[in-house]
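Lecture 7 notes. Example A: sequence first, then its structure tokens.
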Amino acid sequence: MLRLKTPTMFVQAFSTIRLGLKSLAIHKLRSSLATLGIVLGVGSVILMLAVGEAARFEAVRQIKDMGATNIIVRSVKPARDSTESAGGGAALAYGLTRQDVERIVATVPTARQATPMRESRREVRYLEHKLEGRVVGVKPNFSDLNGLRIARGRFVNEHDEAQYANVAVLGAATAEKLFPFENPIGRSVRVEKQYFQVVGVTQRRTASSGVGSSSNTQDYNSDVYIPFDTDWARFGKVLTYERAGTWEAEKLEISELTVSVADVAQVKETAHIIEGLIKQFHKKEDTAMFVPLDLLERIEQAQRTFTLVLGAIASISLMVGGIGIMNIMLATVTERTREIGVRRALGARRSDIVWQFLVETVVLTAGGGLLGVVVGITLAHLVSHLFELPTIVALWSPLLALGVSVVVGVLFGVYPARSAALLDPIEALRHE
């Protein structure tokens, strides 16, 4: 019996599917309008997810460039006391010092590496080309801890530090502006009154865009990197700036300190120890700590919330499309009441009627879902090219949108299908 029944089941299923598709093909315009809500819902969801995923990816990339195992401490200029002159007086001393670095390295056992840097705005010139750049005194391990990659030449090394060498590594944008038509390696650039030989050029890198409340916007492409000890020897401890027609002097030993630990699990504990150590010797609030890992966790949490919001919006839009399809199918049941009666009179079971209408509904929603996926991906690419807004279509977003559309089809197709199956055959045949 089983061998005879199994082919019959397949034949009946195939016949039901063919009948459902034929019914949809007869009413092409009505079927197209019924799927329009699903198409727009799925397409808009994919587009929103693509924009959100691109924003999340860029933020996470910037934080990972800073290093998930890094702890960044920056010097912050405090507000001047009323006893201090606004300009022309003694140099304002603030921020991190060499002693801070030595104490951290000596007393924090989880600190694997520590690299200080000092930055200042200075005029950089090569022949007739000049710009106002950020001159950064760095240690050799600065590139590794901050994710800098070399495009040409090399970075600052230990020999440069020991010899107080006048060497410089240019950011990608700085190299293009000063040397638009020639290789900068081996050439000399003038930084105010000092000449530095170019030994390297960094790869282009996206600006940090100021992620984190204590992390300033940094365009690494416009930097000029020189040895840390050379910076001290050539420009001294006191940095002078002209602001609003007056000269101001600042005694700043270290602008920023990056401390690296061996494992992500040690980051928060190490940050707490470093913060306590610095506060012992800095009574004024002239430092700020930034932990990329904390911000990374907050971004991931925000992304989860964002995904839930988008899921809610998707559910609403797809439910609207599903209600539209259910209305169409209910109208179809009324319109085809006599056909249902004929099928029941010829031996069709209620389950056959249910499956016929369910097939039609699922075909509408699945077809609309597939078309919506195509529309969503196309819109994501158009937005990227026309508005220069980055988008990333993750593999899971079209699959999720398509799966939800099919589920909506089944849920909203059950009631019309059941209504059709429950019709009395005799009353259905009498229906005009």
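Example B, a different protein, same format:
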Amino acid sequence: MNERAEVDRKIQVKAVASFVLILAIIVVTALGIVLLVINKRVAKEDEKRRIVPAVEIVEVAAADHAVKIFTQGVVESARETKLAAEVGGRVMEISPSFKRGGVVKKGERLVQIDPADYRSALAAAEVRRAEAELALEQEKARVEQAKLDWEKLGSGSKPLNPLVLREPYLAAAEASAASAVEAAAKARRDVERTEILAPFDAGVRSANAEVGAVVAPGTMVAELYASGELEVRLPLSLEDFGFLARDADGMVTGEIVLKGKIGAEEYIWKAVTARVDPEIARETLSANIVVKVLPAGGSAFPLPPVGLFVNAEIAGKTLDGVKEIPRRALLEGNRAIVVMEDNRIAFRDLVIPRLTRETALVSGGLEAGDRVVLTRLSAPVIGMEVEIEKEEE
């Protein structure tokens, strides 16, 4: 009985102890929550920072703009010729300047072909000419005598027979004399053709004859080019071709400057238009103008060497009141971004009459003073706020 009471008492003690422990835990937990609430740290709310992209701009101004056209070409001789032997024979003499790279003067004898046989032929032709002319004079005298005889016979009323007056004989003598004169002239020309002369002041591109060689008629003995008359053929796109300044006759009037590099030095020559090719090249859809190079006084190279590659700058038409902007400011579809007074952006559709590698000339869509954005924005929208980084003068 006592044991039973002891067990019940222990159970009750454990129950009371468990209750007290749970109550203590609850009280401690509540106190901890109260302390946390009282001592909580209030987080400061940071202001949201707006991301405003910085942009580079250029302020545009209206002005008259002289179009400049750039192209390239190769210096060529305005006159070139190939000299061929008109008569055959052995070469007796050549000019000291008759060699590749030589310079010859107009009328200079380049090649002398042996003229002996041709002089002999000329002498024989002169004899035949003299004989034919003598025979013609004799026949004329016979004709006069025949007329006198016919009149003395009193036969003037009868039909006149041409043979009686020796008319066929006279015609034959005249033809023979004319033939002899032409034969003598040809023989004389053959003698002159034994000398091959320079037709103009020229440089020798090739020389194909030497003393002792035998040449046949038609053999090409030299190729010459006029070193003092130089031209450059300049190809132009059809757009550039349309911007050339022309006079009433269609000739290009703008200043033309040629630049070529020889060694470490760059040389400059002026040029004038020689002619405008009236036909468009079908392969390249380009037009060509040919310019004549003018001598440059005081230069180590008054004229550029034939074959030199040169860059050309041509002054074209003047566009009135256009705005010039860097080409990198253009968006697809000939649009540009401008910064308004409140530093927000707007889009402008542009009219561009002239576009070069570096710049664009705008005739519509921009006003003087507009600030054009040069920076590429990733996703620009109308009204986006921007910050101007710097202005390009």
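Note on Example B: The CA atoms of residues 89 and 224 lie 22 Å apart. Helices lie at 2-38, 116-152, 167-193, 238-242.
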